[in-house]
endo-polygalacturonase
Amino acid sequence: MNISFKSLVSVLVFVIGISASTSYESIEFLKAKNLTADYCYARSYAEVSFVVQNCTHIVLANFEVPARETLELKLRKNSVVLIEGTIKFAVAHWDGPLMHITGENIQVIGGTNHLIHGQGELYWDGQGGAGGVTKPQRVFSVKAEGGTFKNINIKNCPMFCVSIMGNDLTFSGFNIDNNDGFKNGRGKNTDGMGFSHSNNIVIENSKIVNQDDCVNVICSSNAVIRNVHCWGSHGLTISSGLSKTDRNNDVYNITYEDCSIGGSLVGIHVKTHPAGGHGTVNQVTYRNIEIKDVTKFGVEIQQDYPKGDGNSANNINIYNMNLINVTGSVKGSKAIGVRVSCGSGSCSDWNWSDVKITGSHKKDSCNFHPNGYKC
C-alpha cells in the first residue's frame, strides 16, 4: 500500500475546538493540506478501506473505482477528507451509489484540479430511469450528522448527482457539469442536488447544469438554498406526497434566495403527489429569484403532479408560500408565466410581491390567487 503518514495522533492538530456538538473550524483545501504532512493517502481504490478505518485526515488521490463497487467512506468522527486529481467510476449497469459518505462532524474538501467523474456519457440513452440500460442512481451520496462539503466538482452523472440525508450540513461551492447530457437529448433524470428527511441544511454558492430538478427538497425542515445558479434543469423544487405514510410528507421552513435558473423546463416548481399520504408544505420562501428563457412555466405550484391535468388533490396543505422579487422570462408559444393548481381548500396564506414573468403568449392559469399577485 502507498500510504503516507507519520503519526495518527499528530493529525489531530487539524481540528480546533471540537466538542460533542458540531463545533469545528471550517478550513479550505490548501490551508488544510499545509498544516501538516501527516495525511493518510489513498492512491488506489484498494487502499481506501484501510485508510478510512485508521485515519481521520485523508487524501483521495487520482484513481478509478472498479465497476459495481461503491467508494464507501464510513468516516470516523471529526474526519477531514481532501480530494485530488480525478476519481472515476468504471461502467456497470447497476443501481449504485457510486460514492457514499457517512460520518459525524466531517469535512470533505475538493482540491483545485480535482474531478468526480460519473461517466454518464457511457450510460445515457434518452430514457433515464424510465427504461433503457440500468444506471447508477446516485453519484455523491451523503448521510451524515454535522459537516461541511466544499468546492466539489462533479461531471456527467448517469442519473441523480448529489443525494443528501442528515442534519446540520453545509454544501458550498459545488460545480455540477452535465452539459454533455444535452447532446441529442440523451441525459435524463440527472437531478442536481436533493435532500430528504433532513434538518438544518445549507446549499450555497454553486453552479448546476443538468436535465432534471436543479435542487429538490423532500420531507425536510429548516434549510436555505442561496446563490445557486442553474441551467437546463426542471426547477428550484419542493416535493411532497412521495410517501404513502403521513409523517414523511412534511416540508417546513425552506428558503431559496439569490438564485437564478435558465434554459429550463420550469423555474420555481412546487409539486405535490395526489397518490401520497397527507402532509403540509409550510413556510416556504423564494426571494430574489431570476428566471430566464423557461420553456414551460416560470412558476408552477401544482397539486396534480405528474399529470398536470387540473385534477388536483388536497392531501397536502400548502401554507405560507411566499414569493418576493421573482422576475424573468419564459420562451416559446406554449410557455406560461404562472400556473397554480390547488386542491379544494388546500392552499392558504400565500403572499407574493414583485413577481413579474414576461414573454408568455398565454394568460396565467390559476385556481388559487396569492395575496399581492393578480393571476
In short: The longest strand covers residues 279-294. The two ends are 65 Å apart (CA to CA). Confidence is low (pLDDT under 50) at residues 1-22. The chain has two helices and 24 strands.
